[in-house]
Amino acid sequence: MNSVRRPRRAVHGVLLLDKPRGLSSNEALLKVRKLYQADKAGHTGTLDPLATGLLPICLGQATRLSAQLLDARKRYLAEARFGEQRSTGDLEGEVIARSDPAGLDAARLRDALPALTGRIRQIPPMYSAIKQGGQRLYELAREGLEVEREPREVEIHALDLLSFDGGLALLDVSCSKGTYVRTLAEDWARALGQVAYLQSLRRIEVGPFCQQPMRTLEELAEVAQQGLAALDALLLPPRAALDGWRFVRPGEELLPALDHGSSVPFPSVEAGPVAIEGADQRLLGLGEVTAEGRLQPRRWFGPIGI
Length: 306
Hints:
Oligomer: single chain
Order of helices and strands: EHEEHEEEHEEEHEEHEHHEHEEEE
CATH class of the largest domain: Alpha Beta
CATH superfamily of the largest domain: Pseudouridine synthase
CATH topology of the largest domain: Pseudouridine synthase
Distance between the termini: 40 Å
Number of helices: 8
Number of strands: 17
Structural class: alpha+beta
Largest sheet: 8 strands, mixed
Number of domains: 3
CATH architecture of the largest domain: 2-Layer Sandwich
Mean pLDDT: 91
Helix content: 10-25%
Shape: globular
């Protein structure tokens, strides 16, 4: 007998999910969407199944701001195990090389970190979702194949060694989008004449989301028993994704031109990215004030706004 499909509804906001280990980001997204009965949902940056922690889920109108979180700075707590290298770069793979970490200490580990900070180039791991020749790299890796990959530039904003004991290092990593922390751990070990793999990874910050409480799937399931209103109370408003942005409010006479994608004179605001709102605080779009003193819409949500 087919189960009755629950109706979808329009619900808008951002849920800060504490993704559990062993679940893909898409699987976590589907579970949240089902609980909320949301007609539209999306996540804001994939976490590997073995990783845990902050996965912002955008519902409804908030999905229109998800790109801002995809591009945002991330922060992780990463455990690197020295003495073994694994095929996947993490705990899931087979051991492919070994080294003796007995001579390592916290001072040596810290001395190697500055070279890995700032703008660096990483070669993406074979066990990654990047496509090459129409296939995901991890699909090729599972066939026993290895192909040449182009290095990618990422930015490591800060690295801080929190502890080191028995070959296990706990590292605080603040980085740009696209950073492979598995590769970072391997490069760190290589600089020390060692091998290492990522034993665990937990994301603790995404853009403006750094202090707010995360919600587990178990917590959401319990709250869901109280009804949808109780679940909705856990959501942050969509514009929380723009915390830290400058908001500007152009006059009503300028809105028709902005609605058609045209720039308008806006000389009183310093150049740079801005969020554009209406008189009633509806978020109308994202834009940029140019050096010439004009307001140029970059992503426009229309007169209804968010």
